[in-house]
């Protein structure tokens, strides 16, 4: 390894420094050999000639050939240590241990003076060692700085190697050393603390808890009595065995082990200094000088921390527990509530430890204390008590009277006055005056009494204009009865009448008949709304039918619909509750579906008849197949997984029915009389089975009780045999062979009982259970016992029959689960069928492909049934090249269907995907045809396939409160109870579609023409001019060349293929966003209105590494092309693309406010470490680009990395996964409009508006040529296109308004 090793001796150095120089010269080669390969710089810093400051140039250094690291050493101003540097902290501040960071970007500029230069030179990890000369052990003589170009998790190896090299040169450095062993009492206390930290963190979801121990310099733990009696000088160090950390936080704990805290540093140091609990709202905002772990906290994105003192009651030692709150808990009220819960958990968990009871003071982020203290406002704690902060950091309780007075200091004479907030009367406000006069004044203050009277007159949320509305109140009362299922006769109850009269005397209770009439009216209105909503849904529906027999030839039928809405949320609605006849069940179901006009949109049915009736089920299935010929027979299910396993169990019991009768007789005999019970107990004791549980009777209608009876009887069979020998009246005991039969059958059924009792709601787990049971039955068919073979064959026949009903639905649901796909089905078939698995898998794949092709027939990308062979284009052969066509054929990559692409991708990790619907919501745009199929099939209620009771089972149990009501009224109450949403739920979070029957819901479903105007691929509500229609038709004609350039700006251009990404329900091409930024920048500069920056998306793409981002910005002149004068800039819009999530969002830098806002149309996606790291790297890059501008133009130097990060709550949220890029464009163009409460996002309208802006912009150099091509295109296609213009003649007036509105838009292109 070539090494540059400079040793320029300065003869003017004092003798002591020359000796130190020689030792340094000796240490460096040893360090080189031990560190091995890799780019690094090692340089010594020592006193200058005057002995006042550190310098590096006269002292030796070691540098692996790397020009950027050498540039870093020779930076201007870097030859001496400034006050803001890691070296100064290690040398001057008395830090006994080295300071290091895995990446210098985690420092702030005021912590590391040459931060931007270091990043530009490629510096990443850095560590500084205090160096001590053995000849002068009491003096810290130098600092060794080790710089690397890689981000290191820790410097453990380097610490060891540096220490060895220094010792060989008669130098040394101080490294963390193990403390002496703890006493028995201390060990017990730390064990208890470890239990406390685990309990607190796991209970409240905390990521990290540290246990700090105050050590004295004699290596003894400080005791509480000593702390109160004598000044303490020592350090706080963590004890790892008593800490708790998530897997991601282990690195931070390791960093804590290599440092220590002093009094007042961090939350733990402050708690130790004041002997009170301490709270830090954000540890990342602390300076490294005040909190040595601040830069590590930024790396691990830690948030608020609270430190609580615990005192050991045994040996008087005390410990500091520091808990870090979750990153999402940022509001002071949430933090206060969580801290109180932590304290309660600690009190409940501690045994021999006592907690200091004073509550920590939770202050809000960014709160400041007034400098002039003209007005002193005490802060209330969560209990309502008033406190003020004193100079000694202690808190003093303040009288409640100060809630009604302002304390004001007179600037002229310094007198303090208390001014009443009601009447403005002044009283002396000094503390020595007391508060008696103030209390007296409050009793007689007229203004306060008037204010209190107003507060009691009406609730604040009603205001003074509240008007009672009898009709509205009556309808709300009826809705309440419907929703909660209250009895109708409650309107006649005297106690209820009195209660209502006291609440509102004006409210008149109505009669039961009136309630019924209004309930029917509400039901019909809600039904009409729901029908309109369902009519506009583009998905298909799954239906469950619950049939309950009662009386002669009568059944109650509950029809329930399941579907996935436009936001990929599972929805369930009861459609009907009717009384029908046995013989007309199929016709009744068809009539109800026709009534709701959804008969053609039903693709799956599940029916359950109670009590079970095989004959009736077969007839009903046969009739439904004939009534609904459009449905696939594989999607009509009449038996569920649980029912099938129960039938298998009954088949097993059938083989030993005689033995079971004998066992029931045994149990009945021993429990018949006390004498028999005593005899059986003696028999049990004789065979030493007295600890076994007594056998109990079963319920023959419930097979699981029969299994439990059989199992317990088998455990006591020796006792029954012993009883037979001593009691001659006991003659029902089974023979030895019969007991053996029962034992074998019980073993067979144990598997079924195990799977049914597990109550698994996971379809993949149940699929594997069926595979295992099937395989088990195949093996038992070969048993040597005839009755076992007979039982297995009977069970297998039943399993085959029922499996054929729901295996296709099972398989499709597994394939559409990205964690399973076809691989999971293949795995299960191999376990089930063994060598025959390929035959069954081929059959399933064929059905799957046919089903998919029915969805994909309009796309042209049809899946191949069972192979990857597909027809490719043919080529003509000529005599000169017989194989030319074959060679061209080989080059063609046949287009793959959605199904093939989906199955070709790797199976998702189960830890990463917990919600299948959420996965499809994001990924459906990548697989349009398969996404529609997934939306339909994932609506199949898994509970219907797995469980005996469907989701509507409870509805078939009519509320006793409805007894005596008519059929339509009962249906109205049952459906109304299901449909009605509370007002709070309807308005909660403002989520669109939170109530399916709300009239405010806006529908925009694929395949439904909801608007009046069709513009190319867009269905829009805004009118479009004929000229624009020509452009749109020309641009989006798929028969034209995809490579043609449609938009050409200064730095970016768009082809027709890239512009296709603006079509409805399509993921946006990131080049569209960069072209938008390019166009916006050019337009704004022409208008001399360059107050905002619009950066291309590639700038943020390179921010994974600050040095890479800086290099890219300089190479492509990002600053010159997209950024105006820094002094004039108000906002900078930086679009970002998260490749891992395939998601666009926006950083908005508010330069005047020094705030970074994250605008994300899916808010949850921006709560990630990836986003935080990308943002920090981007801000570090901006610091480097604008370093000189900031220093030259601003009196107070500032940094982009100091900007506060905010996530505005009023950013609109998208209802799908493919509109995120369009939202980002809207955020950039009209930020004020999108944050308006009245803003409604229409995807087609917004996409069309972006297209027209790009095409019509005068910065688009293709504009004129494009218009000519569009005109010629229409001439060729329509000839004299008067017909086209005539179709739009009725739009002239509205077009004129549209053109005026468009020209007044924020983005004005036609300058």
Topology, please?
Layout: E1 4-6, H1 15-35, E2 40-47, E3 54-55, E4 61-63, H2 67-73, H3 86-92, E5 99-101, H4 115-120, E6 126-133, E7 140-148, H5 156-168, E8 171-172, H6 184-204, E9 208-216, H7 224-229, E10 234-238, E11 244-245, H8 250-257, H9 266-274, E12 278-280, H10 294-299, E13 305-312, E14 318-324, H11 332-349, E15 353-355, E16 375-376, E17 379-380, E18 386-389, E19 395-398, E20 405-409, E21 416-420, E22 426-428, H12 436-444, H13 446-457, H14 470-484, H15 494-503, H16 512-535, E23 541-550, E24 554-564, E25 570-581, H17 585-595, E26 602-610, H18 614-627, E27 636-637, H19 641-655, H20 657-670, H21 674-686, H22 703-715, H23 717-726, H24 736-757, H25 763-780, H26 786-815, H27 821-833, H28 837-856, H29 884-891, H30 898-904, H31 916-923, H32 928-937, H33 942-946, H34 967-979, H35 983-987, E28 1013-1015, E29 1018-1020, H36 1026-1035, E30 1045-1048, E31 1053-1055, H37 1056-1059, H38 1070-1086, E32 1092-1094, H39 1097-1101, H40 1106-1115, H41 1118-1122, E33 1131-1138, E34 1143-1150, E35 1155-1159, H42 1169-1185, H43 1187-1193, E36 1204-1206, H44 1220-1229, ...
Parallel strand pairs: 23-26, 26-27, 32-33, 35-36
Antiparallel strand pairs: 1-4, 2-3, 2-4, 2-7, 5-6, 6-7, 6-8, 9-10, 9-11, 9-14, 12-13, 13-14, 13-15, 16-20, 17-18, 18-19, 20-21, 21-22, 23-24, 24-25, 28-29, 30-31, 33-34, 34-35
